[in-house]
């Protein structure tokens, strides 16, 4: 069921690339329309799955990836519509398409573990997915900032100079995205900790719950990610780490977040395997 | 009716002559009206910029129109005929259309692709239409030219990239800061270059402009000129700390802004970018300053090379833009031909319709006995037959490749069907929307 949004996202990706390369406004409008349509179909898919399992489908890694892609797409569309700036699409769509391949190939079965049957758990996962979506945008904004910065600083006003927005706008959007992401990451981590203590009371012998400690790579990595973004926010406000340094940090943070979300989540973690 | 154009441009006339033949924007409508008042011309648009003065007219007799226009230019500007006649250029019909499209696209401009010209063409057109000097001939060709101008702008990079040093500097500032509203500018040196750049920045909506010069009186003079604030020379380094954009253009032999004092002044605001434009030769700003994170240092050579790069990029786009213009000229001419087929098509249609009506009239006694819905059906079926018979000839007449063929076909159709097109019907038909020619007024599908 996740294949149809994938196809639409891929088509939108091609249209964004054409729009970026040729600066063709028709291709740009087509790209936005395709992406909107993809998001709509994706909403429908997630809605169907929600009705099927009676909660938002996030208790399985593939479905969580699908939900993450959906949130990232919506966040990007929000950014595009509020700033009237389409040039970021060509950078964000490869992430969207690449990730959406996972749920399209491995649909996954939603976990029915009763220990997950807690509102804390849903807040925990939803906040983190939303935080990752914000960080995704921030990371892409950071990468584009560095591309634009390099051309202006080196005085080679070339391909990206004419296509990307100004440095200050990229920096400001990056700052917003990091702040929003950090808030949700913090919320997600705190709620996760609350839920863990609660779950220990309910199901003390659950192997997942038992393994929840800093020794678990996923939990450790989540805290590292939180550390990176906390530092990015602190450094921006007090050390004047704006611009390229902030861009770097947000790209690095997103790298950690994705590491945690994909390989660690699938292969390494000992405490987050409820499926 | 012919489209005729007479004018001078930077390609044909020296600047002093262009100045003497220039129409101010206030006079455009009056001039257009004065042209139309002459007997051989029915429509007129006067286009005048610093690089051209051109008069577009619709006339049934272009040779006479030319004579009258030359006389008009001489009378209007009080310039002797011999002074400007060798510099005039005149174009007719498709050549005039092509010229107007090239002008609107910015291809005929002194700086190829400059953006103002399309607005000037629109203004010329509006001034003339305000005085009712525009009819179907000029109306169509001018409106089409606006589309050509827009298309060239959106499909080519002809108008892209700044082509003067100060525009290049402002374009860079925009790529660094986004918008320039409220940005603080420090101008070091109060010479002519500083003055030009400060004025340009002011027109872009920057916030405060602070000016400093070794001679304080000069700084004060420039400050009052551009609405800025004069600052004592000694306070310059301190002011660097709070500026977003710094423009330097002094005659100093040695750098006046060096790295260490700048870093000291910047101490508390490292986080926002600083854009330094060094327009002085020898340079006013130490090159090492460009290495500071968040400082973007451009000197006159850097800006000059951006301008040159942009110019060569524009030149590379000219071919693409020309091909768009040629395509549009061909499209426009074909459209015009299809329009000139309209009177014949309308006459043909009227002829068929009158045959149909008279046949129905003749059969009235027999049809009268039919029930009302059957009668309606007969009416509809006969109308459908007429429509279907006319579809193909209509399309063929509209798609004829050139004017001679069209004239031959029109003549043949007129004879074959004994059509009579009186002048009044022709004029009315010319203003008829193409829908009639396309047969949209009676949709045959509805009858099925």
User: What average pLDDT do the residues of chain B reach?
Assistant: 87
The CATH class of the largest domain in chain B, by name, is: Alpha Beta
Oligomeric state: heterodimer
Report the structural category of chain A.
Answer: mainly alpha
Which homologous superfamily in CATH is the superfamily of the largest domain in chain B? Answer: Glutamyl-tRNA reductase, N-terminal domain
Tally of strands of chain B = 10
Mean pLDDT of chain A: 88
Count of DSSP-assigned helices of chain A: 9
Low-confidence stretches of chain B: 432-448
Whole-number total of structural domains of chain B: 3
Radius of gyration of chain B, taken over Cα atoms and rounded to an integer in Å: 32 Å
Task: Note the overall shape of chain B.
Answer: elongated
Give a quick summary of the entry:
The complex is a heterodimer of chains A (275) and B (448). Chain A is mostly helical and 275 residues long. Helices cover 77% and strands 0% of the residues of chain A.
Can you walk me through this structure?
Chain A is mainly alpha-helical and 275 residues long. In chain A, helix 3 (61-83) packs antiparallel against helix 4. Chain A folds into 2 domains: 1-110; 113-275, no CATH class. Chain A is built from 9 helices and no strands. Chain A is 77% helix and 0% strand. Chain B has 448 residues and is an alpha/beta fold. Chain B folds into 3 domains: 2-155, Beta Polymerase, domain 2, CATH 3.30.460; 165-306, NAD(P)-binding Rossmann-like Domain (Rossmann fold, 3-Layer(aba) Sandwich); 341-447, no CATH class. In chain B, the strands form 2 sheets. In chain B, strands 7-6-5-8-9-10 form a 6-stranded parallel beta sheet. A 4-stranded antiparallel beta sheet of chain B has the order 2-3-1-4, with helices on both faces. Chain B contains 19 helices and 10 strands. Chain A binds chain B through residues 24-25, 148, 152-153, 155, 157, 161-162, 165-169, 236, 240-245, and chain B through 154-155, 160-161, 172, 174-178, 269-273, 290, 293-294, 296, 298, 302, 306, 309.
